[in-house]
Amino acid sequence: MxxxxxxxxxxxxxxxxxxxxxxxxxxxxxxYSTVIGMVHTMCGFTSYHPMEISIQGxxxxxxxxxxxxxxxxxxxxxxxxxxxxxxxxYGVGRGIATAELLVDVELLLHVIPEDQSLVxxxxxxxxxxxxxxxxxxxxxIATIQEVKVVSFERNVRFKKNISVDRGYGxxxxxxxxxxxxxxxxxxxxxxxxxxxxxxYLLTSTYELINRGTAKAPKMFRNWLKKDVFYATDVxxxxxxxYSKDEDDKLMFVRMEE
Length: 257
Description:
10% helix, 45% strand, mainly beta
């Protein structure tokens, strides 16, 4: 099979956690839904094309930045003592809030479309983009450093230990950690590794659910999520079965069971 390997760089970026409000917190790497959305936007897809994504990367540091936040309540009329803006007959509050930003982000992505005939189209969309690529917020511009179509092997026995690039972290399916297919964490004084990672339930794709009626539909997104660990210093030891591309870059994708 073929995958598109994409290397990106970003200056300041926020991959927003959906449950953060007062401080707009960020994930350490973009969630699957964010990457899938970028691929579909870059390619101009108007319907969903199933694909698997492997996400690796690193950042230099974190900073906090101020941004303008607008707040309104449905049906609340304008009150000059309470609202800063008037939109029609409604009032909107304007204030400042804080966003957490990652600095100097490097990403290594593998995109594996289920329909392998889409591989050339996806690669071309990133090699010659029709508009500036962004990942995260709309203003989080991404600089494309490398696009390569690579062959990869899934669940192949390794002949040697293979690690992610130095300093990189990755989203690893929880099942792979439970099955002890990967090793991650810093080495302790006695030579063993301490498994240090953060567990996330990340959005992947969604389906539209009508919770209204046929005449008065109310559509809601029902998100499908992936249970993963975020960890650095990740290694797959020899004699284990895992996935890698032709250049011995690890790919954190798992067959659905």
